[in-house]
TrEMBL record:
It comes from Paeniglutamicibacter sulfureus. PANTHER family: FIDO DOMAIN-CONTAINING PROTEIN, FIDO DOMAIN-CONTAINING PROTEIN DDB_G0283145. Residues 144-291 form the Fido domain. InterPro entries: Fic/DOC_N, Fido, Fido-like_dom_sf, Fido_containing. This is Fic family protein. It comes from the Bacteria.
């Protein structure tokens, strides 16, 4: 259970450190100074076991988390009753924001192009991979264990870094500092021999039923990032885990509330909160996730309104029988605003000819515009939806600018 911390400190067992020997490869390409620094022992983190740790937080932090939880559930219920495919829209928005926390930026158009295999942007393809990871997190939320976390990571990196998926890391990693050793790093996660037992422990914590869901998800996320169980993709996988826990705990049932968009608003505060967590202060990360939830909901409501306005305008522009393919195409464009005839035909299970006719009607109504020239390999976009998605991203990162 969560108790009120009368000392107002959010006391939590702090991360310890241990000396570990570093063996140089001998063929490093670096300055003499860097090579001198890469000698002797380095200090790796030793995170505490938290499966049974008592959770004590200041009263105002508990109240903040409770308020954020109510708002998350309310927004989830609102979006779940709407006709537009907001589950897909918000899932992609969360995935794009989580990627951008790692400085993997891409426009809505490039991400939509990547969805149909037409983007040359590496970052866009990574965002699409993050959509898969988020989808896996939601699908596996009822069976949260080490295997499901590895599956989330696999969905993220199977195409771009298959050598890293399917297992916990088997090497030392570090954050910041030089590339040849961890001696000057900003943070050195635990030695890889500790990862398996630490991940079993964080999963046990995530299964507790005596901690409110948002508080539990925030702490589990911070512990996951401290462990850094994979060679790459830890941030995105950790935020996918957070979403999976919100779904598992019932705070979200219909949509993926784009909490990462709230974290993106003030990434410095987010990273400081992770650092404070390692020092034994859970209040900062719970506060960061709660405030990110409020920001995400405010931003998400604007996105929902923009999408609804576009859909209403399309309905006024296009008159057709209720069973016409053009209506199905309009609905599909709300979640996939870049299409070609082949992908539209496959999605709607209609012929290529019928798909092209639907596209032509949407072009005539100025719902779609062609993105490329010529008659071969044509691609069309829905500018209003792309603008709404880009505006969502701009609002999320406004404070960073």
């Amino acid at each position: 259970m969560v108790t009120i911390d009368k000392q107002q400190s959010g006391v939590w067992p702090a991360t310890g450190y241990e000396a570990r020997p570093w063996v140089r490869a001998g063929n490093e390409v670096a300055s003499r100074r860097a090579k001198l620094q890469a000698r002797g022992d380095y200090r790796a983190a030793v995170p505490p076991l938290i499966a049974a740790a008592p959770v004590a937080l200041p009263a105002e932090v508990i109240a903040l988390a409770d308020d954020a939880s109510q708002e998350l559930a309310r927004f989830d219920a609102e979006a779940g009753t709407m006709a537009a495919p907001f589950a897909s829209i918000l899932l992609r928005s969360e995935s794009a924001s989580s990627s951008e926390v790692e400085n993997l930026t891409s426009s809505a158009k490039q991400v939509a192009l990547a969805e149909i295999g037409e983007s040359k942007s590496g970052n866009a393809r990574l965002v699409v991979a993050n959509v898969r990871a988020m989808t896996a997190a939601i699908a596996l939320s009822d069976h949260l264990d080490e295997h499901s976390i590895i599956a989330m990571h696999d969905a993220l990196l199977r195409d771009t870094a298959p050598e890293y998926v399917g297992y916990w890391r088997n090497e030392q990693v570090w954050i910041g500092g030089g590339s040849i050793s961890p001696h000057a790093a900003a943070f050195v996660p635990p030695h890889h021999t500790r990862v398996s037992s630490l991940m079993a422990d964080v999963v046990a914590f995530a299964r507790r039923t005596d901690v409110p869901v948002l508080i539990q998800a925030a702490i589990a996320h911070a512990q996951f990032e401290t462990i850094h169980p994979f060679p790459d993709g830890n941030g995105r996988t950790g935020r996918a885990l957070l979403q999976g826990m919100l779904r598992h705990g019932g705070l979200t049932r219909n949509v993926t509330v784009p909490v990462s968009a709230g974290l993106l608003y003030d990434t410095d505060a987010y990273f400081r909160a992770l650092t404070e967590y390692r020092a034994g202060n859970t209040s900062a990360i719970v506060t960061a996730v709660a405030e990110a939830s409020f920001a995400a909901i405010r931003n998400g409501r604007v996105l929902v309104r923009d999408i609804q306005d576009a859909a209403a305008r399309w309905d006024d522009l296009i008159m057709a029988r209720s069973d016409s393919s053009v209506h199905k195409a309009k609905s599909y464009l709300l979640r996939q605003p870049v299409v070609n005839a082949k992908t539209l035909a496959g999605e709607l299970q209609i012929s290529d000819v019928a798909a092209q006719k639907a596209i032509d009607r949407l072009v005539d109504a100025e719902v779609l515009t062609q993105t490329n020239t010529g008659r071969r390999n044509r691609v069309w976009q829905a500018p209003e939806i792309l603008a709404a998605l880009d505006a969502f991203g701009a609002r999320a990162r406004r404070r960073r600018g």
